[in-house]
Amino acid sequence: MADIILDVEVRERTGSGGAREIRNAGKLPGILYGGDKAPVPIAVNLNAFRKALATGKLNGHLVTLKYGKETQKVIAKSIDFHPVTDVPIHFDLYRVDEHAEIKISVPVHFKNHELSPGLKKGAALNIAIHELEILVPADHIPEDIIVDLTGLEIGQSVHVSDLKLPSDVKAHVAGSEVVASVTASGASKSEDAAAADTAEA
Fold first, then answer.
1. Which of 74, 114, 119, 178 has the fewest CB atoms within 10 Å, i.e. the most exposed one?
2. Which region holds residue 34: left if phi is over 0, alpha if psi is between -120 and 50, else beta?
3. Three-state DSSP class for 22?
4. C-alpha distances in angstroms, 34 versus 27, 38, 77, 96?
5. What is the pLDDT of residue 47?
6. Model confidence over 156-192: pLDDT tens digits?
């Protein structure tokens, strides 16, 4: 994955007035915090930020912050969007040692729906965990956690302990937590009832 670089500047003015001034200049206000240093108000070109965001590799991933000739590894911790236009209006960056273990949430995705007998019968996949909180070295954050649905029958569940995580990734939630379950829907119940009636006949 190509390294994302955010070329930032330090904001002189803070508060709502300073943020408005930054946005009017086509920039996005943010805060750099974490580590043993004080928070620093920063700004980045809005268009450059939106391009980085469009890659899907920005929020929650290790990126390089560039200030003049200095560079530093950071994690994009949160991004606030305008409720109507969906344009970014503020962001937070967190200083990290790229080899240090951090706690972060990554998306959970599912594959092989067609290989689940329960889903093929019309059952529903109920997802309990859409993002899994993990402990991982900052430079090895996975893009996502993949859950294989192969063989899952109606009534069966996938637990955190069932997940095949990379060797340097640890779940930060109990292994007994349910990630997703295959539950009977109206269609699958009707199908089962019809099958039972046929068997009795």
1. 114
2. left
3. helix
4. 23, 8, 11, 7
5. 95
6. 999 999 999 999 999 999 999 999 999 987 654 555 5
